[in-house]
């Protein structure tokens, strides 16, 4: 399939960065720079910045996302935020299953599945993160790991709901390390994920699925990565914190 028929999306994942004044300054700087983007543009921000981001991006081409959500609608879950709470605010996207949640906060494929379910039920679009550890790549089990993560996370997701899922392939060894997967490595795994999705939902659904690459993507390497036939944009950490860097990646994905 011609990849131009698929939507490339560049999503910033700010992680635990930016106070409200800092967020305001970054968004104000970014807005005019990405106004003519030829790809989807999303910023996923800390909960404390959601209201600011929503207000400042109203009427623009920038979508706003959260970085996680809980699977229950409400209740005694101190410190958690539900998908319904996000949707009610006007948030449209949520990152689920990021490797930092898996690594530091006990996220498992099963809890990822529950969060995906809750997010879709709330009407959100999910940016589902999958990716292997360095040791797993070295053992030659990248496809096994990424395939399993994808299948479990999508358990119970209908073909219609899949239209509100973006998958981000993020090799854990490339996140925040400055070690980018080669364009060939990124494409190979994104293509494999597409084949897994084709097995679950059929080729047409898989061909329409946005699959991003994430892991030390920056202004310099973005063009080669996003030009790959199965890479439909990126999930950007560090480089999303500076408007010129993020804009350069958006421009690379707009060609
Ligand atoms: O969600 C974003 C990824 O974790 C990539 O982060 P990074 O671009 O800082 O490597």
From TrEMBL:
The active site is at 98 (electrophile), 170 (proton acceptor). The keyword Isomerase applies. It catalyses: D-glyceraldehyde 3-phosphate = dihydroxyacetone phosphate. GO terms for cellular component: cytosol. The keyword Isomerase applies. InterPro entries: Aldolase_TIM (IPR013785), TIM_sf (IPR035990), TrioseP_Isoase_bac/euk (IPR022896), Triosephosphate_isomerase (IPR000652), Triosephosphate_isomerase_AS (IPR020861). It comes from the Bacteria. It holds the Pfam family TIM. Pathway: Carbohydrate biosynthesis; gluconeogenesis; Carbohydrate degradation; glycolysis; D-glyceraldehyde 3-phosphate from glycerone phosphate: step 1/1. GO terms for molecular function: triose-phosphate isomerase activity. Involved in the gluconeogenesis. Catalyzes stereospecifically the conversion of dihydroxyacetone phosphate (DHAP) to D-glyceraldehyde-3-phosphate (G3P). This is Triosephosphate isomerase. The lineage of its organism: Bacteria, Bacillati, Bacillota, Clostridia, Eubacteriales.
